[in-house]
Write a structure and sequence with these properties.
The complex is a heterodimer of chains A (900) and B (179). Chain A has 900 residues and is of the alpha+beta class. Helices cover 55% and strands 13% of the residues of chain A. Chain B has 179 residues and is mainly beta. The chains are: A alpha+beta (900), B mainly beta (179). Chain A binds chain B through residues 519, 523-524, 526-527, 530, 611, 614, 618, 707, 723, 726-727, 730-731, 733-734, 759-760, 772, 818-819, 857-873, 875, 879-883, and chain B through 43, 45-50, 54, 56-59, 61-66, 92, 94, 98-102, 157, 161-166, 168-177, 179.
């Protein structure tokens, strides 16, 4: 039969459509050169379609056309534009941070063990994606740099050498720099690409210790490597499979729900497209959808999804750049790609996966559509050969037959829809008429699309019928009536398609919520808790003996507490991303300091309030740098101490009694007590009369937090100025946290940071002083006690001291500190609270301790400047405001007074 | 608790409507668009380290707002609160463009009067009294009564509370790690 010849005619017709599109595009851009060549090609193709063209003529005209078009494109793209659209830019900036992080992760991993094929492909993919994004934004410098880097990686892998890590790290740094610049100013020029380009161009692979597996895939020209994962091409009848580990990935549900959302959006945009609307907002929307899916899919290692998204995206990009003219044929193709994608996503959620052959076919068709113009040498040549070899009278008859057949088929589908009660017979007739009219004007739409366009049916309804109908009906509903020959039924359609949204798909749906809304929810719940307490503590209710009321109230308070916990948990995030960034830091610092070091992470999944995570990053950076630069001995020292040459730093996070404890532990030499003391005496921080020798270790160690305190003999560019630890202390104190140091000589040092779970709520002790109540953060309270008369000593300066187990601690009345009112200390009456900040202690005298509770920290309202020794306000159970005492400031202030 | 919330009027002439209140026997008015609500006296928590004009802070439905003593701000005699004393909550704007809810203690609230621009006379020259800078003008809504002084509440408030930015108290503040 003439199946083959039908295919050939089909190919020719496809080519013709494309050539027509080129001609139109050239015409609208007044590009006479391309237009005339395109017309010649059209003529040759027309002749062939009528069965009388010569292969030679077509080949020649098409080759000429290709040369002209490609030449033109190169000319156009060489115009330097270092400018990026703003909304696209912000998208880019958002995504490329992750991208660079991922590259870095791979590079770091590669240092410990050589990359396997998957790793190398991943690296390539990431660089490539980054390049692509730069390209979209016309960031040509960055694009060139990335391109060269890609070339370098390919070359080096091909030569079987190892990747030059430093160059790649430099590349990441360069990109980061650029991205950071762009975030500040979207027009900022790229950083000087000179050094990085030189490094890349001169980049030589290093001889591998053990030769890595050569990359057979990448070398074959003409084949698209790594588009379809190995598992996906095994055999024609295999179904697409995904990596086993993916099911366990936490991010999968989020990815799925997001991706499906994107697809819905893409479909909406696709359906809204008409031929006037080329490369407009709709194309952008579709492009974005596929692009995002590709990005996340790549991150999750979903090769099948990536390859499909990549091909779709590449094709769409050409419309964006107005390199291709949109027509409904492409719409069909993209829609099918979209459906295929939905099916793949469904497969991830447990549905039946599409067959590999089907996926391959889809990708191939997308690629063909993409390459239809730019590199058509192979495909056009092959197609021509097939076309001309098979073109004969038989084939034409056959195609004529099929051209008429669809009309009957469409009428039948129409009846089917009428039977299903979806459309009225009148509507069916109208649609058929419209379709014919379109056909006359040279357009071709599927019957289904016609129905959608006329507003008679929604896309979803047609899908339903498509899913429900038998295979034949499905094909028929897709049937085009038009001048083009009917394409062979897409394999994507012929396989049994699982119903979407069916029982198999169960997604943990997530919603992105604005942080401000979340904060206001947390605030409101805080209010609810207070209001509930107010009711609970109301004297009338307290006096009432009604059991029912009491039960109801305790039920209410339980629910309120649960609600508060639930709302707090909304803000919780893990330390994961913060911790992982530290890998890079450790690598760089250990390289600079010449101390090999590995970083181990523990408890990165620990959850904590988002604000805490944001603020902990800086202190961690300083502590890790210090741990490596000061903590670890140099390799010789380690060898002498019988330790492995590679030092170890452990960064861990854990929950401990309502707070978060982060520890940074090194296996270095430990802090040198003598040297710290000597330095402190030199600086006058401790008395130099030898009494300091009795200081407990913890107090001595804490001396290193003083500004400008450094025992390092030389200032390096890593540390040594004595600034870092001061920053650490300040930052941690600002989070109402505390830091402790443990150190064992010869075995290492551990920094323990204790932080509140959230910055919005503190555990507090409510005290009364005079008529007012105040809130003291529990974290800074050491103990509270009633003094014996002998414990308190008044000095002639007006200062008072309390003797606490032999230590003289300054005594201040809270009222005295805040309102400058004298407050007599009555032994046996007043209560003293010993508070601590840094390494200093002060005794506060209050009239009464009311109790301990959690309070929500509020600011005192816009308009009130900073107040001495007050860090905010809290609303207590009776609805009144109590001030929160800033113990750090109070202690610092007292210490200064005491020193004078 | 007699808490009444004045609905922000969107009627024509709402700019002309003014809230009249009494301070130390004198009558004062503020454009009603700047008034957020009038609340009964709340227990006030005093703030350390601020002048006598700032009486302290109160809990306004879960939000802490500062409360100022208008009598002291206008240089009038201080007075014990009585059953008519109340707090007028203003939407004050600061010179830096920020706005805040600020409570002001007044002796009593009288009425809302319509004072079109043409009914407002310019305030007497600042030479006459030092306080004229915050008086926008004078008007006589009732012919047989003494005139009403129209106050520039933004000016008064920003005069007392110089630093509208509360960086130090905000939850997600950035500590000073500049050293």
């Amino acid at each position: 039969m003439g199946g083959a010849s039908l295919e050939a005619t089909d190919e020719l017709a496809k080519m013709r459509t494309e050539v027509v599109a080129i001609a139109e595009g050239a015409h609208s851009e007044n590009d006479e050169k391309i237009e005339s060549v395109a017309q010649q090609a059209m003529a040759a193709l027309d002749a062939a379609l009528e069965g009388q063209g010569s292969l030679e003529a077509i080949r020649n005209t098409l080759t000429a056309l290709i040369e002209v078009v490609v030449g033109e494109q190169q000319r156009k793209s060489s115009a330097p534009v270092e400018d990026a659209g703003d909304d696209l830019l912000s998208m880019f900036l958002g995504s490329c941070g992750d991208n660079l992080d991922n590259i870095e992760q791979i590079l770091l991993g590669a240092e410990t063990e050589p990359l396997d094929n998957e790793g190398i492909n991943e690296l390539r993919r990431l660089i490539h994606t980054f390049k692509g994004e730069c390209g979209v934004l016309s960031l040509q410098t960055a694009q060139t740099v990335c391109h060269e880097a890609e070339t370098m990686v390919d070359r080096i892998i091909e030569e079987g050498l190892e990747l030059p890590m430093s160059t790649l790290f430099d590349l990441v740094d360069w990109c980061r720099q650029y991205v950071a610049d762009l975030a500040v100013d979207s027009h900022s020029p790229a950083p000087d690409p000179g050094p990085i380009m030189a490094a890349i161009l001169g980049g030589k692979g290093t001889e591998p210790a053990a030769a890595p597996e050569p990359e057979p895939e990448a070398k074959k020209s003409g084949e698209i490597p790594s588009r379809i994962s190995d598992s996906a091409v095994d055999a024609n009848d295999e179904r697409v499979t995904f990596p086993e580990a993916i099911a366990a990935d936490d991010t999968l549900p989020e990815f799925l729900s997001e991706a499906l959302g994107h697809l819905e959006d893409a479909e909406e945009a696709l359906l809204a497209m008409d031929e006037e609307d080329q490369a407009g907002e709709n194309i952008d929307r579709i492009f974005r959808a596929f692009h995002t899916i590709k990005g996340v899919g790549g991150f999750l290692g979903l090769d099948a999804i990536c390859s499909l998204a990549h091909s779709s995206e590449s094709l769409l990009d050409r419309f964006r750049k107005k390199e291709l003219t949109w027509h409904s044929g492409y719409g069909d193709l993209i829609l099918q790609a979209k459906d295929m994608m939905a099916q793949l996503l469904g497969a991830l959620a447990g549905d039946v996966a599409p067959r590999v052959s089907v996926l391959k076919n889809m990708v191939a068709r997308l690629d063909a559509a993409f390459e239809g113009r730019i590199v058509p040498e192979i495909s056009v040549g092959q197609a021509l050969d097939t076309a001309l070899n098979n073109s004969n009278a038989d084939g034409q008859e056959e195609s004529m037959d099929l051209e008429h057949a669809p009309e009957k088929a469409v009428a039948r589908v129409g009846n089917l829809l009428v039977d299903a009660g979806l459309i009225t017979p009148a509507a069916r007739d109208r649609a058929l008429e419209y379709q014919n009219k379109l056909q006359e004007s040279g357009q071709s739409l599927r019957f289904g699309e016609v129905l959608v366009e006329l507003g008679l049916l929604r896309k979803a309804q047609i899908e339903e019928v498509l899913n429900g109908a038998q295979g034949t009906a499905k094909t028929l509903l897709n049937t085009k009536v038009g001048p083009q020959p009917v394409p062979p039924p897409a394999p994507a359609r012929s396989s049994t398609k699982p119903a979407r949204g069916g029982a198999g798909v169960s997604l943990d749906s997530t919603i992105k919520v604005n942080t401000q809304r979340l904060d206001s929810l947390v605030d409101l719940v805080g209010e609810l808790v207070i209001a509930q307490q107010m009711v609970f503590q109301d004297p009338f209710i307290a006096a009432s003996g009604d059991e029912q009321l009491r039960r109801n109230l305790s039920q209410l308070s339980k629910i309120t507490r649960d609600l508060q916990e639930a709302s707090m948990s909304l803000r919780m995030v893990t330390f994961k991303s913060t911790f992982q960034k530290m890998h890079r830091l450790v690598r760089d610092v250990s390289g600079k300091a010449g101390k090999p070091c590995q970083l181990l992470l523990e408890g990165a999944d620990t959850e904590v309030d988002r604000n805490v995570v944001d603020k902990i990053s800086d202190p961690l950076v300083h502590l890790l740098r210090n741990a490596i630069d000061h903590g670890l001995e140099n390799p010789a020292g380690r060898a002498a101490a019988g330790k492995p040459a590679q030092g170890t730093v452990v960064l861990s996070a854990r929950h401990q009694s309502g707070s978060i404890v982060i520890s940074i532990r090194d296996d270095g030499g430990g802090l040198n007590r003598e040297r710290i003391l000597a330095k402190a005496m030199e600086k006058g921080l401790v008395p130099s009369d030898g009494s300091a020798q009795d200081m407990p270790d913890s107090a001595v160690y804490k001396l290193i937090f003083h500004a400008g305190f450094s025992t390092a003999q030389a200032v390096t560019d890593i540390s040594g100025r004595g600034v870092g630890m001061d920053v650490v202390r300040k930052n941690i104190e600002s989070m109402r946290g505390r830091i402790d140091i443990q150190s064992v000589a010869g075995q290492g040092t551990t920094f323990l940071i204790q932080l509140p779970l959230t910055l919005a709520i503190i555990d507090a002790m409510v005290v009364r002083s005079n008529e007012e109540r105040y809130v003291l953060p529990t974290l800074s309270i050491v103990q509270s006690f009633q003094p014996t008369p002998r414990q308190v000593q008044h000095l002639c300066t007006g200062m008072s001291l309390v003797n606490i187990r032999g230590q003289m601690v300054p005594l201040r009345g809270l009222e005295d500190v805040l309102h400058n009112r004298r407050q007599p200390v009555e032994p046996g009456e007043s209560t003293l609270i010993l508070v601590e900040s840094s390494d200093q202690q002060v005794c506060l005298c209050v009239d009464e301790i009311i109790g301990q509770q959690q309070v929500v920290i509020k600011n005192l309202g816009k308009g009130v400047g900073s107040l001495p020794c007050i860090s905010g306000g809290a609303i207590l159970g009776d609805g009144r405001v109590a001030l929160i005492v800033d113990t750090d400031e109070l202690i610092a202030g007292t210490a200064t007074t005491a020193a004078q | 608790m007699s808490t009444e919330i004045l609905e922000t009027p969107t009627l024509a002439g709402s700019e002309d409507r003014h809230l009249c209140f009494v301070l130390d026997g004198g009558q004062f008015a503020v454009q009603i668009l700047q008034v957020r609500e009038i609340i009964a006296m709340h227990p006030i928590t005093p703030l350390p380290g601020l002048g006598a004009e700032v009486r302290g802070v109160i809990n306004l439905r879960g939000k802490i707002i500062p409360v100022l003593d208008l009598r002291i701000m206008l240089g009038l005699h201080a007075k014990e609160q009585d059953r008519n004393t109340c707090i007028v909550v203003f939407d004050a704007s600061f010179p830096d463009g920020g706005t805040a809810h600020i409570g002001c203690i007044v002796d009593s609230v009288r009425e809302v009067v319509l004072l079109p621009a043409e009914a407002i006379q310019a305030a007497p020259s600042p030479k006459v009294g030092g306080s004229a800078a915050f008086i926008l003008g004078l008007a006589k809504p009732h012919p047989q009564e003494p005139p009403v002084s129209i106050l520039d509440i933004d000016y008064l408030v920003s005069d007392v509370l110089e630093q509208p930015d509360m960086a130090m108290f905000s939850m997600d503040e950035d500590s000073d790690d500049s050293e």
